[in-house]
Design goal:
The structure holds 2 protein chains of 2 kinds. Chain A has 2 domains: 218 residues, P-loop containing nucleotide triphosphate hydrolases (Rossmann fold, 3-Layer(aba) Sandwich), CATH 3.40.50; 67 residues, 2-Layer Sandwich (Alpha-Beta Plaits), CATH 3.30.70. Helices cover 33% and strands 28% of the residues of chain A. Chain A is built from 10 helices and 14 strands. A 6-stranded mixed β-sheet of chain A has the order 6-7-8-3-9-10, with helices on both faces. A 4-stranded antiparallel β-sheet of chain A has the order 2-1-4-5. Chain A has a 4-stranded antiparallel β-sheet with strand order 12-13-11-14. In chain A, a hairpin with a 2-residue loop joins strand 9 and strand 10. In chain A, helix 3 runs parallel beside helix 5. By secondary structure, chain B is mostly helical. Chain B has one domain. Chain B is built from 10 helices and no strands. Classes of the chains: A alpha/beta, B mainly alpha. At the A-B interface, helix 2 and helix 3 of A face helix 1 and helix 4 of B. Bound molecules: adenosine-5'-triphosphate and magnesium ion. The site of adenosine-5'-triphosphate has 13 residues of chain A, from helix 1.
Chain lengths: 312, 253
């Protein structure tokens, strides 16, 4: 039934109206590819957690359909759910349970036979092995989050949902976490993460989806997204004002600021040559002096802000 | 059937109990002893025999029922309310388990505790009074049946409750009065006719009497009726739980 190039998760026409009457998802269509890292970006209240919760079986869909590796999440929930590991946004743990015991519990709950070696591997990878007999209440926040990841990985899921995994996690731990995510992907695990840190999506994801007000407004390969929108600007701060761009430089895509003190050059980061070296030579030849220069890049953040801004 | 999951939930719930084992055993032992000192020895010596059974022996089944009902409701409601309250319920809801498996795990564990508690009280009582058990198998059957039924009821309570107060108030306001008025400490035949009639609407009367019959072969109402009423109450609880899971009531938004 499931073939390798079939999406591992297929969401179609998914609508969620909460009991309050609030429509959190307004007809989501989304395919997640096998083995990719997919980043779901969206402002607070966009519907990210709602979407994940429906796929995982915690929230009931109002309309629409979701299949996980070909299994319908409602009709065939056992097959669908046993493939999924979920790390929810909120830190929710059984405070009095020791770390290893809670991971074993998760494994058993998902119907897997006990496997101390796998539990040990997961705990070691998350630097929790030394804390295996410690009660969860005695751990720091960052450790608790790792415990939640350990619980999700305890049953060897093929799909891992990370709902804002790096909230409240320090830089070093964050890097370790991303190393782990990459390692999981190299083992063939599909990863869907939500984050508010756009640089994370930029660094980690193969594809990026932007969701706002319960609608997916864009899904793109990160590379092509950056290519499409990723232009750079070179800004030269001139020593003395320039009345107009000299005719010798007319062939270049240059703009002069109103005060005549700044020259802007826009170039494509993906092009063979940026033409910066020759431009700087030509400017020098024209006798134009500059005291400073800097380049700016359109980041995913800019793209995101402009996309979300348009829909407001 | 995800038996592994049922076993996991069951063990988890029981292990919580075992962590506080001493307390779990000591408190019923102490309270039972107190009941016997007060009702059995102090008051009981002035009471006439009921149906040829000494008062001290007469109250044994009722006393066990009183504790079993209270503990069943308390344990089962706490067992499911706690993960709802601290949020860990997400994992159970996202696991490949059916609701039958979830209920079996939680209610099975709570009922196990209740049955053990009942037996502990029985053993404690035997230190204070002489009593006989005419139908031991029926005694076990009533004990298990009552435990399961009231754990199911507790499970419903734990799902319905939206705060700790609600969790406390139902046992205090409804169950304790029903148990005390349910003939745990007296025969309903001792009541004026009006109150006798009214007692027949109290489900606990049937539980206590069925249980007492298994001890002494005598009861205020017939065994068949006792059994029937217990099963009816159980069926109602099961139906409510089925509805809870079908609609996701207070479990899934
Ligand atoms: N149980 C609920 N009942 C009613 N409304 C809800 C419920 N859960 C979420 N919502 C609403 O649905 C919308 C989407 O919430 P959701 O948690 O999916 O957002 P999110 O994208 O995950 O946000 P964040 O980045 O803050 O985590 C919000 O407006 C929220 O208030
Ligand atoms: Mg969220």
């Amino acid at each position: 039934m499931a073939t390798p190039d079939q999406p591992i998760i297929a969401v179609s026409g998914l609508v969620k109206t909460y009991a309050s009457g609030f429509q959190a998802l307004k007809g989501i269509d989304l395919d997640i590819r096998r083995g990719e890292i997919f980043a779901l970006l969206g402002p607070n209240g966009a519907g990210k957690t709602t979407l994940i919760s429906i796929i995982c079986g915690i929230v009931r869909p109002t309309a629409g359909r979701v299949t996980v590796d070909g299994h319908d999440i409602v009709r065939d929930y056992r097959a669908a759910r046993s493939l999924i590991g979920l790390v929810p946004q909120e830190l929710t743990t059984d405070s009095f349970e020791p770390v290893a015991a809670t991971a074993r519990f998760s494994r058993g709950l998902f119907g897997k036979a006990p496997d101390p070696r796998h539990i040990e591997k997961v705990l070691r990878e998350l630097a929790l092995w030394d804390k295996r007999d410690t009660q969860i209440l005695a751990l720091s926040g960052g450790m608790k989050r790792r415990v939640m990841i350990a619980k999700a990985l305890a049953h060897e899921p093929r799909i891992l949902f990370l709902d804002e995994p790096t909230a409240g996690v320090d830089v070093e731990l964050r890097r370790e976490m991303w190393d782990m995510v990459r390692r999981l992907r190299s083992e063939g695990v599909t990863i869907i993460l939500t984050t508010h840190y756009i640089e994370e999506a930029e660094e980690m994801a193969d594809r990026v989806g932007v969701i706002n007000h319960g609608e997916i407004i864009m899904v793109e390969d990160k590379a092509s997204l950056m290519r499409k929108l990723g232009s750079r600007q070179l800004a030269l701060q001139l020593s003395s004002p320039l009345a107009a761009i000299p005719p010798a430089l007319a062939g270049r895509k240059l703009e002069l600021s109103a005060d005549g003190l700044q020259l802007l050059y826009t170039f494509d980061t993906q092009a063979e040559t940026t033409g910066i070296a020759s431009l700087l030579r030509e400017i020098r030849d024209q006798g134009i002096d500059f005291r400073d220069l800097r380049t700016t890049e359109t980041s995913l953040e800019d793209i995101f802000v402009s996309l979300v801004g348009q829909r407001r | 059937m995800n038996l592994q999951a049922v076993r996991t939930l069951y063990r988890f719930e029981l292990s919580r109990w075992f962590r506080t084992l001493v307390q779990s055993i000591l408190s019923p032992v102490i309270s039972t002893s107190l009941y016997f000192v007060v009702f059995g020895a102090a008051i009981g010596s002035r009471m006439a025999e009921i149906d040829g059974v000494s008062y001290g022996a007469f109250i044994v089944p009722g006393l066990i029922m009183l504790s079993v009902l209270t503990e069943s409701i308390g344990n089962a409601s706490f067992g499911i309310y706690m993960p709802r309250y601290n949020g860990t319920i997400y994992e159970v809801l996202s696991a490949p388990v059916s609701y039958v498996e979830i209920v079996t795990g939680y209610v099975g564990a709570a009922a196990t505790k209740s049955v053990m508690l009942g037996l502990i009280i029985l053993a404690t009582a035997s230190l204070f009074v002489d009593f006989r058990i005419e139908h031991p198998l029926w005694m076990m059957a009533f004990l298990v049946l009552t435990s399961v039924t009231f754990c199911l009821f507790g499970f419903i309570l734990g799902i319905w409750a939206t705060g700790w107060e609600k969790l406390q108030i139902v046992p205090i306001m409804i169950i304790t009065p029903l148990t005390f008025l349910g003939g745990s400490f007296y025969s309903i035949n001792m009541l004026p006719p009006f109150w006798q009639q009214l007692s027949l609407f109290n489900p606990v009367v049937y539980l206590v009497n069925g249980f007492r019959w298994s001890f002494y072969g005598k009861a205020d109402v017939s065994v068949a009726l006792s059994l029937g009423m217990t099963l009816l109450f159980m069926a109602i609880c099961l139906a409510v739980i089925a509805w809870v899971f079908r609609t996701g009531y207070r479990l899934k938004a």
